[in-house]
Amino acid sequence: MDRIRIRGGAQLNGVIPISGAKNAALPLMTASLLTGEPLELRNVPRLADVNLLLRILGNHGVDHTVTGKRPGQTTETGQTIRLDASSVIDTCAPYELVSRMRASFWVIAPLVARFGEARVSMPGGCAIGTRPVDLLLMALERMGVQIDVEGGYVLARAPRGLKGAEIEFPKVTVSGTHVALMAATLADGTTVIENAAREPEVADLASCLSKMGAKISGAGTSRIVVDGVARLHGTTHAVMSDRIETGTYAIAVAMTGGDVVLENTRPEYLQQALDVLTQVGAEVTTTNEGIRVYRNGSGLRAVDVTTDPYPGFPTDLQAQFMALMTRADGISRIRETIFENRFMHVQELARLGAQIRLDGDAAIVEGVEKLKGAPVMATDLRASVSLVIAGLAAEGETEIHRVYHLDRGFEALEAKLGRCGAEIQRISG
Ligand SMILES: CC(=O)N[C@H]1[C@@H](OP(=O)(O)OP(=O)(O)OC[C@H]2O[C@@H](n3ccc(=O)[nH]c3=O)[C@H](O)[C@@H]2O)O[C@H](CO)[C@@H](O)[C@@H]1O
Ligand SMILES: C=C(OP(=O)(O)O)C(=O)O
């Protein structure tokens, strides 16, 4: 299994190109099932999750071609994927595939909307929490889908098609909003989604669906209205930039000091996180190319954060920010309100010398003078990259095991950091 070895202490200076967003690419790829015409997606990141979803879609009979990929080379310029769901042969998504990636459960919506049936394995929990799908199923039921659970599979049936409905989510859910939105595009009548997730990835999905012929208003707000249409057609769409990758590198620069321009990204996607970095002591400015993050040798201020749905501080940056706070002057309280178990990185950060105590849904981080390199274990995607950030500032060598978690969500991480001066290498095998 691959490992990542980092010798800490180098500042980061240079330019980091930001890739297309994993969390936008996955629902967009899933949406290809809504039409019999090709959907061409540009700026798709080269990630393990994208490859796995291609396999899952292939299992349903979706053909794909990938261009912009140079064999044997790792580049960070996105690939173009053309998906053709004109000959779907199977509406079942099996356990072996769905259990490896939660987002693959979302195929249930386009399958039942277009074909009137779907049989999809329950996704199960994961390292960050139990992650139920009750709200996704509630949304489909509101649209007239009959839901049964048998042998670990959800059977969704709507032989006479879906009906527009009023759907009010009792809590903000990105997956629930994606599912309701995709299903509503082909429903008969109008669907109103209340308390919808406002995440930019929802707006990106809606923008692509609109180009496919869907009638959607309000995406990006908490009330989305969809007038169903009889069929959707193919289109071309460029995946939005990855705000979590952007925030991760911004935090890395705040951690090591230095001066980096994050290219092809937009500050409004993560304004709250950037504001927090300014409070911490980094300078964050918007340039023509993207976002410049700068910090000289001055100390880091401890800042409290609470994760929240967009536009709040993203849970997907909580672990990275915790790594940063391990070196701050003072005590920071980091509250996690989205996932009940997203603190797996705490014990690994402690192996590097961090002082962190858990108190219910909060982590209390007492900044230390220095971190010291050690072997550590990645436990989930964002937890792994928090260890990279800590390793970049730790004295000596840090070796991160189980980096397949990182490969799910960070395209060309070593190359991007290495070019900015980090001493980082992947050790294969
Ligand atoms: C592939 C992808 O885009 N993943 C993102 C997506 O996950 P995902 O879409 O799974 O997250 P949700 O927004 O749906 O989950 C938010 C909260 O709602 C709960 N919930 C969700 C659905 C449901 O049916 N019942 C229920 O109780 C979840 O357990 C969680 O506590 O949004 C999360 C919140 O921004 C991010 O951390 C993930 O990176
Ligand atoms: C939690 C994440 O992904 P997923 O929802 O696919 O587990 C993530 O991207 O941080």
TrEMBL record:
UniProt cross-references to InterPro entries, sorted A to Z: Enolpyruvate_Tfrase_dom, Enolpyruvate_Tfrase_sf, MurA_subfamily, RNA3'P_cycl/enolpyr_Trfase_a/b, UDP_GlcNAc_COvinyl_MurA
Which pathway does this chain act in?
Cell wall biogenesis; peptidoglycan biosynthesis
Looking at its record, which EC class is this enzyme? transferase
The EC number of this protein is 2.5.1.7
Q: HAMAP family this protein is in? A: MurA (MF_00111)
Its family remark reads: Belongs to the EPSP synthase family. MurA subfamily.
- Protein name as annotated: UDP-N-acetylglucosamine 1-carboxyvinyltransferase
Q: Which organism is it from?
A: Enterovirga aerilata
Q: Which gene encodes it?
A: murA
